[in-house]
Specification:
Blueprint: H1 3-7, E1 8-9, H2 11-18, E2 25-28, H3 38-44, E3 51-52, H4 55-59, H5 74-83, E4 92-95, H6 101-112, E5 118-121, H7 124-130, E6 156-157, H8 159-168, E7 172-175, H9 179-183, E8 200-201, H10 217-226, E9 235-238, H11 244-254, E10 261-263, H12 266-270
Length: 282
């Protein structure tokens, strides 16, 4: 498999795999920042055999000072993954409603938890439907899985290490929110506007399409390089709450940077402490 094939799967390829004797486990991670719940989408129609996994309740911890989508409790995550049928070493494919956000956070969380055999359906549920592939409303009943969550499979930044990366000068901390939020001109979600001092803005729309599809690895490398990401120099990403930034880490993997770190708490964690400095402007 190429690096891309280890991270993304196209709808037709996935359909063939689901027809095999040992198909991958499917996780439906449709999610929106502001409702309605993705579970309703799942009930209305999903990939055959897919189990709905709630990003907020299963893949993230409860919101608070650690951020709006902090790391999950390992025991809670393990129970949710086992209930969804995730087995140790067995392939998993996550998909969402097409923007790629929920699926990317699921991909990142499983990789962080030590489960490497996970890919994202490129283009999500809309790509599956556009390919004319079957949709089901059956309620899946997977056999319980036996996956064991072992945190630490991917690098994580906290507020201190994010600040150090941004200030060091030999690495890059990417802020992938919209430019107006980065500059502090508006902040629709969190109580303080601005960015981590020293961070570099690269809005998500500059490296992934609205349909959740990525350009080639070469094109991604060029875009990240233009934002200041240097080969072999440390790189991390943050957003508002660690969901869009998980997609940025997936894009960095596609660009050949599997060492990219996620500031999971992101801006929602940064501003939870009023003593942390806030920068505004370009």
């Amino acid at each position: 498999m190429s690096g891309t094939e280890e991270l993304l799967v196209e709808a037709d390829r996935l359909a063939a795999e689901l027809d095999s004797a040992d198909p991958p486990t499917l996780l439906d991670v449709r999610w929106r920042l502001a409702g309605p719940p993705g579970r309703l989408d799942h009930a209305a129609g999903h990939l055959p055999g897919a189990v709905f996994v709630d990003l907020d309740a299963a893949l993230c911890g409860p919101p608070g000072a650690a951020g709006r989508h902090p790391l999950p409790d390992p025991a809670v995550l393990q129970a949710a993954l086992r209930a969804a049928g995730v087995r140790a070493g067995h392939p998993v494919v996550a998909y969402d409603g097409g923007d790629g956000l929920g699926a990317a956070r699921a991909w990142w969380t499983l990789r962080w938890a030590g489960h490497r055999a996970v890919r994202v359906l490129h283009g999500g549920f809309p790509a599956w439907v556009a390919a004319g592939l079957p949709v089901s409303t059956d309620v899946p009943a997977p056999a319980p899985g036996d996956v064991t969550v072992r945190p630490g499979g991917l690098p994580v930044l906290d507020a201190d290490s994010a600040a150090a990366l941004a200030a060091a000068g030999d690495g890059t901390l990417l802020d992938v929110r919209a430019a107006a939020r980065f500059r502090g001109e508006q902040e629709p979600v969190d109580p303080v506007a601005g960015h981590v001092p020293g961070a570099v803005n690269l809005p998500a729309g500059e490296y992934v399409g609205p349909d959740g599809r990525f350009p080639s690895g070469g094109a991604l490398r060029e875009r990240f390089a233009a934002a200041g990401v240097a080969d072999a120099a440390p790189v991390g990403a943050y957003c508002g709450s660690g969901v869009t930034a998980a997609q940025a880490v997936l894009a960095l993997h596609l660009a050949g940077r599997p060492d990219a770190a996620l500031y999971v708490g992101s801006w929602s964690n940064w501003v939870a402490d009023p003593a942390r400095p806030v920068a505004t402007g370009g």
